[in-house]
Each structure stands twice: as structure tokens, then as C-alpha cells.
Amino acid sequence: MEELLKLKDKLEKMTSAELYEYVKENYPENPDAGLGKKKLVIRRVLNLEREKMNQ
What we know:
Radius of gyration: 10 Å
Helix content: over 70%
Number of strands: 0
Number of helices: 3
Order of helices and strands: HHH
Largest sheet: none
Shape: globular
Strand content: under 5%
Structural class: mainly alpha
């Protein structure tokens, strides 16, 4: 859980363009995850990370 909080802080400090590039590089299987408002993109990334942890 602490890892997710650190990731959230890191993502919130990024600009929208940096966030889009981060998502594009780290989640190529979900190209649309980087589109939309910044808060929504951060939520999507955190959900993707939670899914990875639960597998």
C-alpha cells in the first residue's frame, strides 16, 4: 500500500505531458490509459498497479 502512495505522489508531481509519456512507456497494453484529465489518468495507473499486485 505504501508503494501505491509513493507512486501517487510521484504521478501528481508530473505535468500532464510527463504523465502521458510515463503511461505510454510503462503500460503499452493500455494506450488509452494516458488520455483524459490528470486525476483520472492517475486513478487508472493506480488501478493497473493494484491489478498487477493481485495477480
